[in-house]
Write a structure and sequence with these properties.
The chain is of the alpha/beta class and 265 residues long. The chain is built from 10 helices and 8 strands. Strands 2-1-3-4-7-8 form a 6-stranded parallel sheet, sandwiched between helices. The protein has a two-stranded antiparallel sheet with strand order 5-6. A hairpin with a 5-residue loop joins strand 5 and strand 6. Helix 3 crosses helix 4. The N and C termini lie far apart (42 Å).
Length: 265
C-alpha cells in the first residue's frame, strides 16, 4: 500500500481569523451536570506528552486529568487502552482526542461513562469509515511519511519541521521530531464500528492553518456532528501552540456550555 496516498497528508497555508462558530444541525443535549474527569487521547506518531501544556491549565481549573498512552500498534489496542483509562475514573468523563485520537475517541466514546467528546484538529470518522481515507476528497498529497526498517512509518524531518508544527519554535519542532513514535499502518486503516458522536454532545477545535488534516475537512466533520466549534489560527497541534484557548474550550465543554459564544484572537 502506498502510505502517502492512503493516509492523504495535504498541506497548504490558509490564514483565517480566530473565531468561534456555532454550527447548526440536529440538536444535541449538553451534559446535565459539570464533568470533573477529563481523559486526553493523543494521535499517531505521538504520546501523552502532546497534552503537556494543557494538563496543568485544566488541573488549575479543578479537573482530574489523565492522558492515555496509546500503543499505536492497532486501532483495537488503542481503543482498549483508552477504555482502560475511562473505566478507571470515578464518574462521568469528557473524552478529548487529537488527530488520529479523534478516531479512537469516536469508538471508545461508546463507553457509558463518556458524557461528551472534544475533537482537536482530529479525524471524526463515521460508521465503517477509515481515518486514512477521510482526506482523499480535500487536497493533493504532499508526502511526509518515511518507513523504518520494519515498515512502520514515521514522519520525515520535512514533515514535522515544515508541515506538522510549522508555527512552533525550531527547538519545539526538533523535540517533536526526536520524540515521535512509529505507528502501525493498521491503526489508521481500521474502520469505526459505531460512531459515538451520533448520540453524545460534541465539540471541535478547528486548526485553520493545519497542513496535516485539511481545515475544510475539520469544518465539514464538525458540521456533520453538529459540534460546537473553536477555530484557531494554528498548525496541526493547537494544544501545543495555543494551549490556553484549547484548555478553556475543553473546560467549557466539561461544564456543559453548549454554546461557547465568540472569542477573539
Amino acid at each position: 500500500m502506498n502510505f502517502q496516498r492512503a493516509f492523504h497528508l495535504p498541506f497548504d497555508l490558509v490564514l483565517l481569523p480566530t473565531v468561534l462558530v456555532p454550527l447548526h444541525g440536529s440538536a444535541q443535549n449538553a451534559p446535565s451536570a459539570p464533568i470533573r474527569n477529563i481523559v486526553l487521547v493523543h494521535g499517531a506518531w505521538a504520546d501523552g506528552s502532546s497534552w503537556s501544556k494543557v494538563v496543568p491549565l485544566l488541573e488549575a481549573k479543578g479537573f482530574h486529568v489523565v492522558c492515555v498512552q496509546n500503543p499505536l500498534t492497532s486501532f483495537a489496542e488503542d481503543v482498549a487502552a483508552t477504555n482502560r483509562m475511562i473505566d478507571a475514573q470515578d464518574g462521568p468523563v469528557l473524552l478529548v482526542g487529537h488527530s488520529y485520537g479523534g478516531a479512537v475517541i469516536t469508538e471508545a466514546g461508546n463507553n457509558p461513562k463518556v458524557a461528551g467528546l472534544v475533537y482537536v484538529a482530529a479525524f471524526a470518522s463515521d460508521h465503517g469509515e477509515l481515518s486514512a481515507s477521510m482526506g482523499e476528497p480535500y487536497r493533493p498529497i504532499t508526502g511526509v511519511g518515511e518507513p523504518l526498517a520494519d515498515g512502520l512509518p514515521v514522519l520525515s524531518g520535512k514533515g514535522v519541521l515544515d508541515d506538522f508544527a510549522q508555527d512552533h519554535t525550531s527547538k519545539e519542532r526538533m523535540t517533536l521530531l526526536a520524540t515521535q513514535r512509529p505507528t502501525k499502518w493498521a491503526a489508521l486503516a481500521s474502520a469505526i464500528s459505531a460512531a459515538s458522536w451520533n448520540n453524545k454532545p460534541t465539540w471541535f477545535v478547528i486548526a485553520s492553518n493545519d497542513r496535516t488534516i485539511a481545515p475544510q475537512q475539520e469544518q465539514d466533520s464538525a458540521r456533520k456532528m453538529n459540534a460546537k466549534t473553536l477555530t484557531l489560527q494554528t498548525s496541526h497541534v493547537p494544544m501545543l501552540s495555543r494551549p490556553r484557548e484549547v484548555a478553556d474550550f475543553i473546560s467549557e465543554a466539561a461544564n456543559g456550555k453548549s454554546d461557547p459564544g465568540v472569542q477573539g484572537n
